[in-house]
Amino acid sequence: MSKSGRKMTARQFFAVAVNGLGKGAVAKTLAVNTRTVARWVADPLTTAPESQSASQLERLRRLFEQMDEVGLGYACAGAVRYLQAGFDLGTDALDILSPRPTILEEEHGDYKALAEYQNAIDTGRSPEEVLHCEDLLIAEIKRTTARYIQDQKAEAGEENHNG
């Protein structure tokens, strides 16, 4: 999502990439020419349709939609996780799920999410539902880790002030 909370479009994504890396670098990485990249970032309100083109990201989304329609959404979810592994969300992303007050409460959340994940498998829910439960479980574990790191940093700070 963009900073405003709305989903980012493919055009916006490529505009950010071009602004941050340069049109030439984006073109080289994706093995296209710079004119193609320019068409991907063209503003549809001010650019003639023939000067615009669907980006690789838009085409991939269409492929995901087609695959999902025939029950292959689980493979799309796997591809998204593969792409997500290409960048570091960092601990700032963990702020989305603020840690619970104590590590014990965090661990209880982990157990609940694990039970839900196991239940999804045991009751034969769809691959998409199992993947969703898996994502929730991973998020819970990351939140517990964030709480642990927060506690360790706080302890280290106390030791430095008292020591």
Keywords:
67% helix, 3 domains, disordered N terminus, 7 helices, mainly alpha, 163 residues, single chain
Description:
This protein has three domains: 1-53, no CATH class; 58-87; 89-163. With 163 residues, the chain is an all-alpha fold. It has seven helices and no strands. Mean pLDDT is 81; it is low at 1-5 and 91-96. Helix 2 (23-29) packs across helix 3 and helix 6 (103-122) runs antiparallel to helix 7 (127-162). It is flat. The termini are far apart. 67% of the residues lie in helices and 0% in strands.
Q: Secondary structure elements and their pairing?
A:
Elements lengths: L9 H12 L1 H7 L4 H8 L14 H14 L3 H12 L18 H20 L4 H36 L1
Query: How many helical stretches?
Result: 7
Counted beta strands: 0
Question: What's the main sheet like?
Answer: none
Q: Give the termini distance in whole angstroms.
A: 44 Å
Low-confidence stretches: 1-5, 91-96
Q: How does the overall form come out from the CA principal axes? A: flat
Structural class from helices and strands? mainly alpha
How would you concisely characterize the structure shown here?
With 163 residues, the chain is mainly alpha-helical. It has helices at residues 10-21, 23-29, 34-41, 56-69, 73-84, 103-122, 127-162.
